[in-house]
Design brief:
Length: about 140
């Protein structure tokens, strides 16, 4: 099943194992940025909606982001992690990839060069919740 919605410039694709959010070109560095507030609302809503095990954020249109943007990603990751789901970043431009690397964020986020590469990797992986259940972690976390 696949559906596509577009709201406030964000495109959301639902795949069998993942939801993909394609971010529009915007400035994600300002603390007073309305695009950042809309992004946070959308990502947290998707994290709460009980969708597939992976949420892929396609950053291929994003040239720059700052601390608050990273805070939004970490908050989304935390919400997904509590449900046994994963946050995946794709399409990082070199300056953004360097920031993610310097902050060691690839330890909590799965990072792929493109959304398509992320989806192909997800297709080959079991759902995150299944991995935790198989390892006997879900019962011990709740």
């Amino acid at each position: 099943m696949e559906w596509i919605i577009e709201t406030n410039g964000f495109k959301v694709y639902r795949k069998t194992n993942a939801t993909v959010v394609e971010l529009p070109k915007a400035e994600y560095g300002s603390l007073a940025n309305s695009s950042l507030e809309r992004l946070q609302g959308m990502l947290l809503e998707l994290a709460d909606d009980g969708g597939p095990g992976y949420l892929v954020v396609d950053l291929s249109n994003v040239a720059f982001f700052a601390a608050r943007f990273i805070g939004v990603l970490v908050c989304t990751w935390d919400r997904l992690e509590k449900k046994g789901q994963r946050l995946v970043l794709s399409g990082l431009r070199p300056s953004c990839a360097e920031l993610v690397s310097v902050l060691n964020l690839e330890k909590i986020f799965d990072v792929h060069p493109t959304a398509q590469a992320a989806l192909e990797n997800i297709e080959q992986s079991p759902t995150p919740g299944l991995l935790l259940e198989t390892a006997g972690l879900i019962g011990s976390l709740t």
